[in-house]
Structures are given as structure tokens and as C-alpha cells.
Specification:
By secondary structure, the protein is mostly beta strands. It has one helix at residues 47-51, and strands at 2-4, 24-29, 35-40.
Amino acid sequence: MLHVMPLGDAVEHVSDDDCVCGPTAKMIKAEDGSVVWLMIHHSLDGREITEGHQGES
């Protein structure tokens, strides 16, 4: 499982699905058919409001 965490956030994130930010799990399917889970952690300092959601699909 891979984790994407915001840097310099108001809280310290942990590489776990029990993180205080309530990360979202996203399944990524590779070309070879294998599956990897990506845990996307959410910032708690409000940066999404000013940065937008660039790169999300």
C-alpha cells in the first residue's frame, strides 16, 4: 500500500488507514493486471480550498 501525505500540515500524518485525516483508498490497476492500493491523506490546514484539486481524476 502506498501513501500520499501532505507535507507541513497542521497535524502529523501516520502511514496507516487509521490516520486522523481519514484517508481515502483508491485502487490503481497496473498494465500487467496487478493492483496497488493508494491511500490519499487529506490536509487539515485547509490548503485544498486555496490550491484546488489539481491532478485528481
